[in-house]
Design goal:
Layout (H helix, E strand, L loop, with lengths): L34 E4 L2 E4 L53 E2 L4 E5 L2 E5 L5 E3 L4 E3 L6 E5 L7 E6 L3 E8 L2 E8 L4 E7 L3 E5 L4 E5 L3 E6 L2 E6 L6 E4 L2 E4 L6 E7 L5 H6 L3 E13 L4 E12 L8 E4 L1 H4 L10 E2 L6 E5 L2 E7 L15 H13 L8 H12 L2 H6 L3 H18 L7 E5 L4 E5 L12 H18 L6 H16 L14 E2 L4 E2 L12 E2 L2 H17 L3 H22 L18 E3 L2 E3 L8 H6 L16 H15 L7 H9 L3 H10 L13 H14 L1 E2 L10 E6 L2 E8 L5 E4 L5 E4 L3 E6 L1
Antiparallel strand pairs: 1-2, 3-4, 4-5, 5-8, 6-7, 7-32, 8-13, 9-10, 10-11, 11-12, 12-19, 13-18, 14-15, 15-16, 16-19, 17-18, 20-21, 21-25, 22-24, 23-24, 26-27, 28-29, 30-31, 31-32, 33-34, 34-35, 35-38, 36-37
Helix pairs in contact: 3-6, 3-15, 4-7, 6-7, 7-8, 7-9, 9-10, 13-14, 13-15, 14-15
């Protein structure tokens, strides 16, 4: 996987308020820093003295590796192909392996390596499985020897690498789910080098079917051209044209079908989401834009991941591919639509008779009496804010207004300090990389552009809690403008802007976020704490609802609904059909582009491996209850590996257990010393106690019932359902559930009813 950063994680309307000054993004000292006002807050246009921006692994500053044509566009870091544009390896100006699935790629001097891994290896003593990149073909132009490869364009899930050298150029378009590589070449004949002498199974002159290493490919040159084979080299004179394409075939019998779309070149990709609120459904349409380079055919073929094909009613073909995510199924057509139930989020679990009010009040007051957020880096500040944010609504439930307001005051003060440039903590905009970085930074959030969605999610969630009680504070003219700057950096929903890329961390086709800004590993990109990514999505829902921004709220619904399905499928293997049969684990700590690891960045302790995709536990964690059997398998494996119940992260894992078996979680809390020791850094006994004992009374979340509000949920025990909802609006609301139940929710309040 290449060198790993030193990470010990968890041990202990977008503003356009300013024009960035010309010196932004330059090294400290190169220009006088300016404070860019945003409402009552501000950020700096220059990094603080002594700090760093993006660098390679030799510590040298790097700039986006893109062509002049797209030099002014914000680069989508944290993507599956980011190693093409972010040169993390000082000695590699091309790329590391990029995994589009079903194909994998790597840019080299002579062009684009293409492979299709149908077999995996289990490494690390059984801890990791990988479908490693291995080149079957290298696509290029005769005589091409480029000094580097650069990104020449991109869309929602496609990218176009570009090579130039010796009077020759190559531009390829590749993407998630695409079995095709679309090549544009000048200065010479199309040239493809195979890993071994190919076996030809079909020859139509300009269309050639070959088998290399047991993999089947189709090569398409312009009409009138002919492919010639000499040993392991295949070439075609393009006859004055500048294009050719290659496709990986599910089997040789697909040659004719794939030939039909050989010259329908993909030029872009786009996702559009539609929250059908009255139905409690999220619909998303994934569309490829195409151009006929020959003839009139503009259709195409695309392979859907399991989290997609399990939720589409669009017709699929019988063709399938192997991938690290399980079986991919092929759609014949330029678009498809998925539709999923929306699991709601809550600012807190509802009031219930299972909680001892006196005990909870004591826990809340303990948090208030010691409430503090130190001047740590963005991650640990965020953790501290998140801890306090979860206690505020609990203080409200028990009528501890003084404790509530004290905690809110501490949160506001620290947020406002971070949201004001020029102090010990601040955010700085880098106009070269088009990113907003908080200093002090941590875990490569500055030098590698890692984890912005993790860090900033805590700030957004905290701001959403503040906005729930003080809407004026969250106005754009006050402090909400800076909240929106953080949102824009981590999850900008706008395409075509000049300040931030579209959805920086979220890969819309993969269905989840990526953590590494550069993806500079042999196994591609990775993500460890999927739950921290979900935390950002929930924050968008709540902040959007609290500020009346339905577009932002709906973006959060799309991200959470999509990632929830990816998490259940690719981290927890809920349907038990995603992991290889010989992989000896039922959960992953990290998903990699090439596979997955039953591990974390910082420890092999089973408790952290099984808990890292649970924290922070919030009202957004309810989606995990969609697969109670997966929770049970997960915790049973943890105990087998651990040699007994959890010790270090026991309270987090009790909360996880409560989503499946609340009674057992309450028993574990009582037997395991709940309330008597120091919990995980982002947790408090007020929240743990309330979470476990509330669910023991209401029952676990019931995902079979949806609502016409994204801030509503249902719980069930013994055939009895409890309905809960929060209304962020200024007028009363009636929430209707899919089983016919209605719940009246007063303005700016929560409501609960059992029946």
């Amino acid at each position: 996987m290449g060198p790993q950063p030193k990470r010990r994680r968890i041990l202990l309307a977008l503003t356009a308020a300013a024009t960035v000054a010309a010196g932004a993004g330059l090294p400290a000292g190169a220009a006088a820093a300016a404070e860019i006002p945003v409402g009552r807050g501000s950020y700096s246009d220059t990094r603080p003295p002594g700090t760093s921006g993006p660098v390679d692994n030799a510590g040298q500053p790097v700039t986006p590796k893109v062509t002049e044509r797209v030099a002014d566009r914000p680069v989508p870091t944290n993507d599956w192909w980011s190693s093409l544009a972010f040169q993390r390896a000082a000695d590699n100006p091309y790329s590391l392996p990029m995994f589009g699935h079903p194909l994998s790629y790597r840019a080299v001097a002579g062009g684009l390596e293409v492979g299709y891994a149908t077999e995996h290896v289990v490494v690390g003593g059984g801890a990791q499985y990988e479908f490693q990149h291995k080149a079957d073909l290298t696509l290029g132009v005769a005589g091409l020897n480029s000094p580097d490869a650069r990104a020449d364009g991109w869309s929602d899930w496609t990218v176009s690498p570009y090579w130039a050298g010796g009077g020759r150029t190559l531009r390829a378009t590749i993407g998630h789910g695409s079995p095709y590589v679309y090549a544009e070449a000048t200065g010479g004949a199309a040239q493809i080098t195979a890993a071994a002498a190919p076996q030809v199974f079909a020859d139509d002159g300009n269309a050639l079917g070959i088998t290399v290493g047991g993999k089947h490919y189709a090569l398409f040159a312009p009409t009138g051209s002919d492919w010639t084979v000499s040993g392991s080299t295949l070439s075609a004179d393009l006859g004055g044209k500048d294009y050719y394409s290659v496709a990986v075939l599910p089997d040789p019998g697909a040659f004719e079908t794939f030939s039909r779309y050989a010259f329908s070149f993909v030029t872009g990709s786009r996702v559009d989401w539609d929250y059908a609120q009255d139905q409690g459904r999220m619909n998303a349409t994934y569309t490829l834009q195409t151009e006929a380079r020959e003839g009139t055919e503009t259709g195409t073929l695309q392979a859907l991941y399991p989290h997609q094909w399990k939720h589409t009613s669009d017709q699929l073909t019988a063709y399938e591919y192997v991938s690290p995510r399980g079986t991919m199924k092929v759609r014949e057509g330029a678009s498809f639509t998925t539709s999923q139930d929306v699991t709601g989020v809550l600012p807190a679990l509802p009031e219930s008779g299972g909680v001892d009010q006196g005990r909870l009040t004591a826990f809340v007051n303990e948090v208030a009496d010691t409430a503090a957020v130190g001047r740590a880096d963005t991650y640990w500040t965020g953790k501290a804010l998140g801890r306090l944010a979860q206690v505020v609504p609990l203080a409200d439930q028990v009528g501890a207004a003084q404790a509530r307001d004290k905690i809110l005051g501490v949160m506001k003060a620290r947020l406002e300090e971070w949201f004001t440039a020029g102090g010990e903590t601040e955010f700085s905009y880098d106009a070269v990389w088009k990113t907003l970085t908080g200093y002090p930074a941590s875990y490569g959030s500055d030098t590698e552009l890692n984890d912005h969605h993790f860090h900033y999610g805590y700030y957004v969630m905290a701001a959403a809690v503040v906005a729930q009680y003080d809407p004026a504070w969250a106005a754009d003219s006050a402090w909400g403008g800076m909240v929106r700057e953080l949102i824009a950096d981590a999850a900008n929903p706008a395409r075509g802007g000049d300040r931030y890329p579209f959805l920086r961390g979220f890969d819309v086709y993969a269905g989840h976020s990526w953590a590494a800004g550069h993806a500079g590993f042999a196994a591609g990109n990775n993500q460890e704490a999927s739950s921290e990514s979900v935390n950002l999505s929930a924050g968008l829902i709540m902040f959007g609802a609290a500020t009346g921004d339905t577009e932002l709220r709906d973006l959060g619904v799309y991200l959470l609904t999509t990632e929830s399905e990816a998490v259940r499928t690719y981290w927890f293997d809920a349907d038990q059909d995603a992991f290889p049969a010989d992989f000896p684990h039922n959960t992953l700590g990290m998903v990699w582009s090439a596979g997955g690891a039953h591990a974390t960045w910082w420890t092999g302790n089973p408790e952290e491996i099984h808990g890292i995709n649970v924290l922070p536990v919030t009202g957004a964690s309810l989606h995990l209850a969609r697969d109670k059997a997966a929770i049970d398998r997960n915790l049973a494996e943890m105990e087998r590996e651990n040699g007994g119940p959890a010790v270090e992260w026991r309270e987090l894992l009790w909360e996880f257990q409560a989503l499946s078996d609340p009674a057992a979680a309450r028993e574990a809390y009582a037997a395991g010393g709940g309330g008597t020791y120091t919990p995980e850094t982002g947790e408090s006994w007020a929240h743990v106690y309330h979470w476990i004992h509330t669910l023991a009374a209401t029952g676990a979340p019931d995902p079979t019932v949806t609502a016409d509000s994204p801030t509503a949920a249902v719980f069930a025990t013994g055939g009895t359902r409890t309905y809960a909802a929060h209304n962020y609006g200024a007028t009363d609301q009636t929430v209707t559930f899919s089983d016919g139940k209605t719940l009246r929710v007063p303005a700016r309040s929560s409501a609960t009813e059992t029946g």
